[in-house]
Design brief:
83 residues, 3-stranded mixed beta sheet, 3 strands
């Protein structure tokens, strides 16, 4: 992954865009610190992976809850209890 300074990124935006279409580019410096510029396709790929991990974790938790005897009715009862 290539790293460039914000000043260089600003001066050579076309090169940054071209590089980011091939692989993410780290842009360092400036008041905000570092950022990563990447293609829309890479962003969507990473977003999809995160969604897949989230749904897999939710499925695991549901299976563990069911194995422990937690039912929808018991969950509603627990959530309604204000003590």
């Amino acid at each position: 992954m290539r790293t460039i300074e914000t000043e260089q990124a600003s001066r050579d935006w076309r090169r940054l865009a071209a590089d980011a279409s091939r692989e993410p580019v780290v842009v360092t410096g400036g008041a905000e610190g570092a950022m990563v510029v990447m293609s829309e396709a890479e962003f969507q790929r990473l977003k999809g992976k995160a969604w897949d991990r989230l749904t897999a974790a939710m499925d695991r938790m549901a299976a563990e809850a069911a194995a422990s005897g937690l039912t929808e009715e018991k969950l509603e009862e627990l959530l309604a209890d204000e003590s």
